[in-house]
What does this fold into?
Amino acid sequence: MSLFFAILFYVATAVFVAGLAYKIASFARTPAPLSIPTTPAPTTTGGVVLRMFREVVFFESLFKGNLWIWIFAAAFHFGLALVVVRHLRYFIEPVWFWVEFAQPFGMYAGFAMAGGLAGLWARRFLVDRVRYISTVSDHLMLALLLVIGTSGLGMKFLVHTDVVAVKTFFLGLMRFDIQPLPAHPGLYVHLLCVALLMIVFPFSKLLHAPGIFFSPSRNQADNPRETRHLAAWAAKMEAKN
Amino acid sequence: MAGPEIKAPPYREIPVPPALQPDATVGIKSFVANEKIQEAIGFQGKLADNWQETHDKAIGHFGTLLSKYRSLRVYMDACVHCGSCTDKCHYFLGSGDPKNMPVARQDLMRSVYRRYFTPAGKLFPSLVGARDLTQEVLDEWYTYFYQCSECRRCSVFCPYGIDTAEITMAAREVLDHVGYGQKYTNEILGKVTKIGNNLGLPGPALLDTLQGLEEDVKDETGVDVKYPLDVKGADVLLVTPSADFFAEPHIESLIGYGKVFHAAGQSWTLSTLASEAGNFGMFVGNYDLLRKIALRIREAALELGVKRIVVGECGHAWRVAYAFWNTLTGVGAGGKDPFAIELQNQLDPHFKQPTHICEYTWDLIQQGRLHFDKEANDHRVITFHDSCNVARASRMGDYPGGQFDIPRHIIKAVANKFVDMAPETIHEKTFCCGGGGGVLSDDLIDIRVKGALPRMEAFQRVVDEHGVNFLALICAICKAQFTKVVPYYGFKSSMVGGVHQLVSTAIKLGNEQ
It folds into this structure.
């Protein structure tokens, strides 16, 4: 089993990193020929950075759009962020002080994460508009994340696993030295789903995470009268004139 | 006339999203362009007889667009189906057809993207909502992508800024490419590229109209206000939507621009070559046409030797002028290439190029160079409708949001009675008039009436509560749409007019005592 998970995580990491790098490169390579920020938009690069910060950290547009989705999405994403920070301790030795500091918060963040996911999932059944647009993969993605969250919470609060051994396993993986993984069904489920999430990430709507940074309606400054904005393929047309 | 059987949807008692009514507007389909119209602007004349050929061509062109437009590429991947946009489209609110929810409209195209351009859609189509491109799918694209006015309201509320307008433009571009164009838009594209304006008014007709206008204004005011055409060496070139030359109430604003120039002692001219500010090339997402039409303005500016370019009241035209002209034609500043510098050296760098007529007028008002008899507008209680392309795709003035303040400042400077509609229906959250983006066609009147519902609800409230009797606009399409559609909601067409119509009513031309 340890060997299976070791290989699984090597594969998952490779797919995650390579797939994401490929997608990000394709976003970055594709030109944005016209200036199309959704206005009112900041007129300077500094302003754009601030707008992007508000979008990424506070989900500003979603807040304007729908308060319920915002509450659930914020609970899930903030929860997830803290949980990820908390999990850093499995990959570093000695543990950084701020990761240490986040430990108790990360514990409760797990509940926020699961609660947010449950709320988002409930909307897919209860709100007819959202039910209409939901695909099978939308449901499966929420299921996958919820299994990850609940299996994690289960190990923390119900049936503990040997976290020291888990840490040894992952530190070993990072040195290409495979150590035994505790035999624990909850842990197996947890890790299996995390690996699956990493594998589907570059092929799914999880691309919203890198995508927002490349969204022209959000990342462009509103300065078209002052700056000439010209894509390479469009500039070629001028040469012909 | 399809008039009688089409009814405005009832106002919503409490403005909650309507219950879904699948296929409510599936039958509202605008006329398809014939071969002549298509070929005149360089598109394939009609669909190939053989479906496979159309299919391959469509997918091929879709792929090309994905490699040329980052917006399309990112927006195809980034949507998580969160639902924030689902109740934001005026066509959905007015019709209940779920395919008018922005995300569902996007998914008409995204489903095809997934099938042909992503591993997940190739391997597990039903899991990720991917589907083959079939004739039925293409028909659905045609129907629903011509029920989008590209107003960008959805993009305000999307956590990733996904702009359905970009997707609608791409879909229409694919449709045009395979010979499945819309009659209304493509016919107009033919006129503007051939004759120089969307209405197909030739130079002599234009001159005639303007001379008539001078006589009318002289009769009315006793002042010789000029409406010059093709004057070389004039300082300002005014580029305005061609509807301003003859349509009501548009022409009242044109009269107003002329009075402002007159009062300011400004040397100005219109141009036969650039007798159209509108640019429907944007509506169909075709860069070549967009550029070709915009280049007429560059050509006219160079030929007439003007120092400044001012744009009349028109929403999408202002978007094209403000956001795209610098890219397409070099009208702007900051160019470092010879193409741009040639024009930018001629234009006066002290002014923003191009300048919106509202920016122009407001500047003069601030300088104290215009004087008004505000009481002349006292018979009007005015509200202002933010046009979508001005509100969400461009700007006026020096700071973000100037596009909301400047027209209101002008109205308040020329009239005493002004009141805003509900805050959730103005500024960046403004509702489309229901006729923008290539929807302003008689064969789409049903969806136009339905799409006007949210705006009409907000308007009805200020009519009831404040006695509003004038809906002030800065867009030729808004003016045409509301003039036609407000009667369905029980209002008179004469309640609709331009901001410079109000200016025109109150401005003092220097002969009063």
Notes: Chain A has a mean pLDDT of 96. The radius of gyration of chain A is 21 Å. Chain A has twelve helices and no strands.
